[in-house]
Write a structure and sequence with these properties.
heterotrimer; A alpha/beta (338); B mainly alpha (425); C mainly alpha (439); A: 338 residues; alpha/beta; D-Maltodextrin-Binding Protein, domain 2; six-stranded mixed beta sheet; five-stranded mixed beta sheet; 14 strands; B: 425 residues; mainly alpha; MetI-like fold; three-stranded antiparallel beta sheet; two-stranded antiparallel ribbon; 63% helix; Solute-binding_3/MltF_N (chain A); Bact_solute-bind_prot3 (chain A)
Chain lengths: 338, 425, 439
Amino acid sequence: MKKSVFLGTLAASALLAGYASAATLDDVKARGELFCGVNTALTGFAQPDASGNWQGFDVAICKAVAAAVLGDASKVKYVPTTTETRFTALASGEVDLLARNTTWTYSRDADLKFTFTGVNYYDGQGFMVRKDLGVSSAKELDGATVCIQTGTTTELNLADYFKANNMTYQPVPIQTNAEGEQQYLAGACDAYTTDASGLAATRAIFADPENHIILPEIISKEPLGPLVRHGDDQWADINRWVLNALVAAEEYGVTSANVEELSKGTQNPEINRLLGTEGDLGAMMGLDNEWAKRVIAANGNYGEIFAANIGEATPIGLARGLNAQWTQGGLLYAPPFR
Amino acid sequence: MTTMTDAPKPGFRLSMLIYDTRYRSMTIQIVVLFLFMAGAAWLVDNTIKNLATLGKDFSFAFLWNRAGYDINQVLVAYTNDSTHGRALLIGLLNTLLVSAMGCVAATVIGIFVGVLRLSKNWLVARIMTVYVEVFRNVPVLLWILIALAIFTDVTPQPRDFRATDEMIAAGEAPKASMLLFDSVAITNRGTYVPEPLFSRSLGNIDIGIFLISIDLLAFLAAVIGGFLAYRAIGTHATKVQEATGVRPKTLWKSLLVTIVPPVAVLWALGFHLGYPELKGFNFTGGINISNALMALWLGLTLYTAAFIAEIVRAGIMAISKGQTEAAYALGLRPRRTMSLVILPQALRVIIPPLISQFLNLTKNSSLAIAVSYMDLRGTLGGITLNQTGKELECILLMMLIYLAISLMISAGMNVYNNAVRLKER
Amino acid sequence: MSNSQANSAVYVRDAMLPAEHPPAMETGIIKWLRENLFSGPLNTILTLVGLVAIYSVLSGILPWLFRSVWVANSLGECRSIITATFGEGATGACWAVIRERWTQFIFGFYPSHLYWRPVLAFLLLLAALAPVLFTHLPRKSLWFSILYPALGFWLLWGGTIWIPVVAMAGFALGWLALRVLQPIGGTILATIAAVVVPILWWLLLAGPVAQQLQAILPIGIEAVRSDKFGGFVLAFTIGITGIAFSLPMGIILALGRRSDMLLVKALCVGFIEFIRGVPLITLLFTASLLLNYFLPPGTNFDIILRVIIMVTLFSAAYIAEVIRGGLAALPRGQYEAADALGLDYWKAQRLIIMPQALKISIPGIVSSFIGLFKDTTLVIFVGLLDPLKGITDAVRASIEWKGIYWEPYIFVGGIFFLICFSMSRYSMYLERKLQREHR
């Protein structure tokens, strides 16, 4: 009898169980909800506010996909993941989409069997040091103590960089960005290294940002993007084109403010195709034709999302840099909607 | 010859498998075995299917690949060119290091607190009670986090130790200074302690996995030799005492044989201490104990010591006062009463739960994750797992290693328990 | 002789004098001080060291506590208020973070209009525990304790009422099978049926039946999913479910370990030693990283449930060892007496052995429970937001509260202390009570 208590738990769990099948889109539609893996807490990219609503640059991707697929940006279940659990959560079907500032690398794509659906933030690893350390280049950091987040690509980059420049360093491993700030501010390390966006975000909210500088060297390429499981091309396409739609919308000047008006029809056939007033693009992916309109209406275009979460008007204050449109000298280049 | 006839055998019926107590346990065992095998087969089958779906294989070959990451606290040589297997070894040694340090410190503090809690001094007994209750009833994770916060926020930075030219001119002292005759520096980057150096070193032996210092071996040999000689002198003295009734004075001889050989070896090897010095960004020289290790050590020690204090208190209180009085009646002096009567009995009560606390401490050392100390979980179950994506292999291997450590400690406890068990006749 | 002596006496006292006051050193507070604090050189030194220790701790903490700020919108504001009030360089506690975010520490992301549900579940839990903990309450109320798991589940997760109802119906069916079959097929067949029938019910019928009932009679409250759980609601959910399930499992394991059946014993020993030999963190990683390897492809169930299962297994192994100790402490005569009375194994266990063994093991069981409750903080390492590190880190990720450490730790640590301390006091109360009964 007692044993059956335990089996009862298992059976009850079966009631709650969800089944991930090959067609993620059908699952998500049937469930009426998108499971989206995000960071446990990273300022500007994913963090819950006082009332428990998730916000941030990565969270906006989740919302956009939910808007496209389900027609409601709020129908997202956010699954906080750590650096250790993120890939398993995706591989096991616990999440449909991982939007957790994850670097697109060869082995993650080919060996871990994931599909990166694009890049939502072009980043690179940099160093932040105190001004009074008197260092103006990363090449002068020989012998320094460096705070570094574990379980990411940054520690490999750091090892490679110091090796290539024939320098030594003392790593201080840390678990989360919050710990990194604590250690760095207390002076437990001379330099703090992570993605330059993170450094800028961190520095911006110091009490004395003017006393810290970000060194000019960017020692790696860190294309951060959302990823899905291998083997479901339809779902990968949806995610890829949601991201592209956000970028294209900015390029064509479609914003959350004017999307309603523009969707009545414009002179620009590309905008018409994007917003579904011309052609039949949505059906090709198994969605309706207005998906992109909902995506933009939910969060705004890429530029609006950037400005609202991490842009120069926010306390984080990141410049667009590489993440500007290709027309502005950046790398954002959405393929044509045709 | 008479032939014995068996009692008439009732025919075997199927229901006897359940109702006959002779067969019932066999039936149950076979059913259990069947269920167990089926369950195991189900798990293995699922695993194989899942691995195939994910396109992964089950192999430990990744342990021989280049690790590519650096570790700040290492006991044996390691660079980012070493293999994942070697990173595992570093992690394992780090786990053992913090566990051993924690066990020693927690025992010392625990005994101290446990004895003081029984003290007649009202104030001290109360302080110790508060300490024990507060530390026992709050998650150890909190103590580790607090210890880390103390080490990063409260201790001085290395540059605070520097006396700049202006400060010397102004006659000011640096903000922080080293302890113990300028030999130990506690900074928020770690604690720097002097390291033993040998100017006429004998070099190292490479035993394949890591190097062993011959100097250390020579020193240990001298200490052990001295100890053996000391024992021999003691045995000889007892013999003489039994033969003649007079115990020869051995104090000077004993001191001589225990102290002279190690000192001679140290002198011959040119032993000196390498003091930490502030150079460039950091202190150099000496041994650097990282703050993660210090915080983990402190947190685990204070937490476990609270439990050990209770064990020690219970152990002492378990020995009835009659034992002391009986020993006095036999004419034993208080010191010998303690060492011959009370302690052997109290230890029998204290040691088993004490060892299970050691076991807990070793397992709790996996909370290194909270302070990013590179223990077994940090290397094998952390970075290696992340870089290679071999969750199944990494976690299983990690569990196996922890299990082996625990079983070894338990085996040691069983040996001790058998040795001190009340010999009942 | 005596006469002459009496006569020669100059003065004879014929009335008793009133007793003198004891000397000042031997009375009142001075005596107490002398005996308890300054009875010898060693004690005096200890007292002084103790006083210095208390002073150094309090002098660090008290000023910081006195300079508390309760109303502010960010850490920066807190600091400027403290600077404005107490002057440059003063540090003080900023409790405004607790004031603003305390709901998150307690309830996680549970919808705020439904806060009454976890609160009610907690209060009902106390009501359900009362008859278990305090034996002088009416035994009838135990029925409520038996029904509580379903009720608590329903209150916390919400949704249709029929899932917990059909789940509990499984137990009722098992009991029914036992009762119906016992006269017909004998005890053993009935016992087997009592185990198999509920399992079949849960695996095959419970789901459809619940759906049907819901379709016919839709009763339900707003569903709250596991991802909304966090803070102390999460810690309590994991802790209490773990405690409730690990006790029966621990008893089974302890009996298995003392069983005469070699195979059963070997399996139980293997399980217990394995679980006790690895850190909880590796089991949690197993729950989050490996379980989907071990289950059929595509199965994927709630992470909280996975964690609860692992925590239950972990705690059950420890409780099994505690109960084994209790069983070993029973004199052999008790077993022999039970055999002599002709009781079968289960009756002997139920009526003779277990009541005594459990009584002996109570302190150990309670301290296992305390350990389990403290260990719920480790779930942060698989991405669940526990109150100690999970919620604290989430709060710290917001721009307003970046860099705040001590206040959340003190708040959460204080709550943990209150709960664990009262549990350990309860176990001491029980110990004393049981000792008295033995006398």
